[in-house]
Amino acid sequence: MSNFEGKFNLDKSGFNPTTPGHSSNHHMVLRQQPRTVKIEGCGIGLPYEIRHEMALMLDDHMCALTVALHQYNKHHWLTEGAESFLSLHHLLEEHIEKTIKHIDMIGERVARLGGVPTAHPVTQHELSYIKHEVEGRYTMRDFIRNDLEHELKLQDMLRKQIKRAHELNDWGTVEVLEEVLLDREDLGYHLFSILEDDTLVRGMEHLISAEHNKVGDEMVNNQNKLQ
Fold first, then answer.
1. pTM of the model
2. Which of 24, 103, 220, 227 is in the most buried spot, having the most CB atoms within 10 Å?
């Protein structure tokens, strides 16, 4: 995490012509600029300044979770190996489902605060405080390690906003983010446990590749004395 700045994009609000997804030749009726909140209120009795700060921080989480979702999808598609093809495939499916849920929870909170959630995929990656790994197939251990790094960064940033939301008495945002944080800690624990140094494959080496190989090069069948 040495390259992790741990900062929110509180200075990025409204249209920026250099930002992807912020300009178009297609005519539409504009009602609100990106990463802004309604000035006149939105049915939630918090001051404009608090709603604006909270919405920007929430939007950064949503962007980061979307990047995490894309990376989880890639790893879910590319699972392989004795310990990964089925077990990790299903585990990552659970991580994907949780991440989709959290993106929706946080995006809806942004909207409830009067904000406009970022939806352009390129803009999301630019605003995200985590970055997608480079393209290509790597080892499953590399994949899971990269996902764990994402989860640790997500947890760190969620805690920062929860603390700030407490200071601003934004209890609604606190409740949403505490639920998300607890789930992300669970997902991080799953990944850390997978990366532990015990493995069923290593435990069976004496049957197939150790010096005193009990199976040898012959076909394995129900008559082989393996133990």
1. 0.85
2. 103
